[in-house]
Design a protein that fits this description.
Layout lengths: L16 H11 L8 H14 L4 E4 L2 H11 L7 E5 L4 H9 L3 E5 L9 H7 L4 E7 L8 H11 L2 E5 L14 E5 L12 E5 L2 H10 L28 H11 L2 H17 L3 E2 L4 E4 L3 H10 L27 H6 L3 E4 L7 H16 L2
Parallel strand pairs: 2-3, 2-4, 4-5, 5-6
Antiparallel strand pairs: 1-7, 6-7, 8-9, 9-10
Helix pairs in contact: 1-8, 2-8, 3-4, 9-12
The chain binds pyridoxal-5'-phosphate.
Pyridoxal-5'-phosphate binds next to helix 3 and helix 4.
C-alpha cells in the first residue's frame, strides 16, 4: 500500500489540551460572557510579553478600530499605511473617512520607510506599521521618525506574536484569530502606551462603560458612544490555555526560522517568505507534493473599496514583486524535516530549468 503523502497547510490553528479543558470548564461554569477568564488572560498576557495596559477585544480588527478612534483619526486626516497588508489594517480607516495614503512595500514585504518619509505632510495624523509575518524591520526607525515629527504611530502587530520587538508604539494591535501563532478562536489585544487611553479603551470596548466599576446599562448615564468589542470568557479560556504553551510555540518558531535560513529562505515568526520567478508554477509544483505555498495578503490599492484598481507605477516595488512573493508554512505542525523537504522541492523545481 502506498504511504499517504503528508499535507502541509500554509496555516494551521494550534490548540493546546489545556485550552480544550479550560473551555469545557467555562462552558459548564454558567459564566460565558466577559468575566474572570478575561481578567486572568489580560494579566497573563501582560506578564508573558512584558507589556502593560492590556485590553482584550474580540478581534484584531476591533483593536485597530479602537486604536484609530483613540488616536482621534477623523475625516480628512492623512494616515500613512502599507499598501501590502491584510485589508483589516485599512478598512477601519475608511469607516472614519480618513485619507488613506499608501506607502510602497520594501522587498522584505514590510513598509518602505523611504516612501513613508516622502509621504509625510502637515496633515499626517498617524502612521501604521504592520509586522508582516512578524517581521519587525522598520519599527525602530518609525518610532524615531514619529517622535521627531510628532505623529501617532500605530503598530498592527496582528502577526507579531513570537517577534522579539513589538508593543512599542502609541497603540499596538494584536490578533488572536484562529490561525495566528497564539489564538483564542477569535480575539485581539489593544495595548495603549498612555494610561488614560487604556482606561478609555476599556470603556469603549463595552458600550462606553467600565465593567470593573460595575457600571450597568440603565443605572449609570452613558457619556461616550462605545462599541461591543469586548472579549468573552470562552475566548479567554482558549487564549489562556494556549498562552501557557507560548514558550513552546516561540521555541518551535525559532527552530524553523533557523532551518529555513539554512536554505537561504527568509523566515519570520508567522511565515517564511521568498521572492521567486514563476511563482504560480512553483506553487502548483509544491501543491502536487503536499505543500501549500500562499500569497494570502494582496496589495490593497487594487481593491475598489480603496479606489482601485491603480495603474502600475505608483508603487514600483509592489509592482515588481507582486507576482513573486510566496509565503511558506511555519506553524506548530511543520517539522524541521518538513522545512528540509520544502527547500528540496523548491530546489528541484528550479534545477529542472
Ligand atoms: C496584518 C493584519 N491586520 C489585522 C488583522 C485582523 O485581525 P482579526 O482577524 O483578528 O480581526 C489581520 C488578520 O489576519 C492581519 O493579518
Amino acid at each position: 500500500m502506498q504511504k499517504r503523502m503528508k499535507q502541509i497547510k500554509l496555516f494551521k490553528p494550534y490548540v493546546s489540551w489545556r485550552a480544550v479543558w479550560n473551555t469545557v470548564h467555562v462552558l459548564r461554569s454558567g459564566q460565558l460572557a466577559e468575566g474572570p477568564q478575561v481578567k486572568a488572560f489580560e494579566k497573563e498576557f501582560g506578564d508573558a510579553f512584558n507589556v502593560k495596559n492590556v485590553a482584550t477585544v474580540n478581534s484584531g480588527t476591533a483593536a485597530l478600530e479602537l486604536a484609530y478612534e483613540l488616536a482621534g483619526i477623523g475625516e480628512g486626516d492623512e494616515v500613512i499605511t502599507p499598501v501590502l497588508t491584510c485589508t483589516a489594517t485599512n478598512l477601519p480607516l475608511l469607516h472614519r473617512k480618513a485619507t488613506i495614503v499608501f506607502a510602497d512595500t520594501a522587498h522584505d514585504l514590510n513598509i518602505d520607510i523611504k516612501d513613508v518619509r516622502k509621504k509625510i505632510t502637515p496633515r499626517t495624523k498617524a502612521i501604521v506599521f504592520v509586522h508582516f509575518g512578524g517581521n519587525n524591520r522598520g519599527l525602530k526607525e518609525l518610532l524615531e521618525l514619529a517622535k521627531q515629527k510628532n505623529i501617532i504611530l500605530i503598530e498592527d502587530a496582528a502577526q507579531a506574536i513570537g517577534s522579539s520587538f513589538w508593543g512599542k508604539a502609541d497603540f499596538t494591535c494584536v490578533s488572536l484569530q484562529a490561525i495566528k501563532a497564539l489564538t483564542s478562536g477569535d480575539g485581539g489585544v489593544l495595548i495603549c502606551k498612555d494610561d488614560v487611553m487604556h482606561q478609555k479603551a476599556r470603556r469603549l470596548r463595552w458600550f462606553g462603560y467600565d465593567r470593573e466599576l460595575k457600571q450597568k446599562l440603565g443605572d449609570t448615564d452613558l457619556l461616550e458612544a462605545g462599541y461591543k468589542y469586548h472579549m468573552n470568557d470562552i475566548s479567554a479560556a482558549i487564549g489562556r490555555g494556549n498562552l501557557a504553551d507560548i514558550n513552546k510555540i516561540i521555541t518551535h518558531q525559532q527552530k524553523l526560522m533557523v532551518e529555513y535560513k539554512e536554505f537561504g529562505i527568509t523566515a519570520h515568526p508567522w511565515f517564511a517568505c521568498m521572492l521567486v520567478p514563476r511563482r504560480e508554477e512553483l506553487r502548483a509544483h509544491l501543491k502536487e507534493r503536499g505543500v501549500e505555498g500562499g500569497v494570502y495578503h494582496y496589495r490593497n490599492d487594487q481593491y475598489a473599496v480603496f479606489g482601485g484598481p491603480v495603474k502600475p507605477g505608483k508603487f514600483p516595488i509592489m509592482d515588481e514583486i507582486e507576482d513573486q512573493y510566496l509565503l511558506l508554512p511555519m506553524h506548530m505542525e511543520v517539522t524541521v524535516a518538513d522545512v528540509r523537504m520544502i527547500a528540496s522541492i523548491i530546489k528541484e523545481f528550479y534545477d529542472r530549468e
